[in-house]
């Protein structure tokens, strides 16, 4: 049996190894490994060297409200947003760095729910279904895997977590806030927060708040508002916006996210939360993120005939190529359907552009359980019920390495139409 540690180590290897043609393909997580060839091609351009005596203090910028944010990262984040044109980062906006945007989500909930009035109910947290959701898949022995011994590689891996809004809201059983489900059906009185993810995980749609009632605050999770996934139609200018290094560039392992916040008090409370939970954020990770964001911004801003393909051009070319192939397979086998996305003018690319979301939100025709059906073909995905909707939907990561993606297409193409309910 392969242990959890072995499996993690093998997925973290530098050079992708050939995938045995009969192995299980796990596309249930949004691990953005597909960008690795680009960064390998960049060679030493993004290498950061840190001597042993460096970065020893807790403090990065004591005069700044977010005293643990390195000025280099602050500058690189603002510069990149200006170059891409996807968010307003004027000087009066506060940037808060977090250990991934996962920590920042918790920080925002803390900020919006304190100080608590002891006479009031916990703050309700809602999101419109389908919403970003939890991933606890592999039970020991792989009984969930669709049988036929197809789960060897993942044997013994219990709980590969992708934290989610419901999970993150509930896991400490806070008295400050409470998960209150689908924003469409939310009808409670009192204060609430709606999380708006746009483009949305899992279905890639562009979203606005739906629970438009008194007493509501909004958190905009813009993890996928980057040119490789969606046309950039304007500078987002919301009160609280979350971004993550994980999905912007693929460097999920660095665990860097940032919030752009308008209100000083909210920003200060978020800083307090991060102080209390981790006394700041790794400076090594911040420096690496700063370097990589800086290189991208510089490449995007440069022009001329010899100009190399910048990261977002590369990412978009790759993503749209994958989407085109997937749509072709889905069209040919007639068993599934995919959402259609409108084409918009992308300010970054300067032309009309299609969306190519990080996840495919696949629907099985005939009301079949889509996740189970794919598991029979050794493709592990994340079924609709985990996102608050029916089981004929499932979410498939589009961010895996090439070999895995190609194997996925091959297997999907082999699933033919129904004959007496059998595939
Ligand atoms: N928000 C959304 C919508 C996501 O899909 C993810 C990652 N799957 C996150 C936040 C978490 O990002 P991070 O790696 O920065 O914690």
From TrEMBL:
Which Gene3D superfamilies does its entry note?
Aspartate Aminotransferase, domain 1, EGF-like, alliinase, Type I PLP-dependent aspartate aminotransferase-like (Major domain)
UniProt keywords, alphabetically: Aminotransferase, Pyridoxal phosphate, Transferase
Query: Which cofactors are reported in the record for this sequence?
Result: pyridoxal 5'-phosphate
**InterPro entries assigned to the protein according to its UniProt record, in alphabetical order:** Alliinase_C, Alliinase_N_sf, Ethylene_sulfur-biosynth, PyrdxlP-dep_Trfase, PyrdxlP-dep_Trfase_major, PyrdxlP-dep_Trfase_small
Ranges where the Alliinase C-terminal domain occurs: 25-134, 164-415
* Residues forming coiled coils: none
PANTHER family (UniProt xref): BIFUNCTIONAL ASPARTATE AMINOTRANSFERASE AND GLUTAMATE/ASPARTATE-PREPHENATE AMINOTRANSFERASE-RELATED, TRYPTOPHAN AMINOTRANSFERASE-RELATED PROTEIN 1
Family under the similarity heading:
Belongs to the alliinase family.
For this entry, the protein name equals Alliinase C-terminal domain-containing protein
The species is: Hibiscus sabdariffa
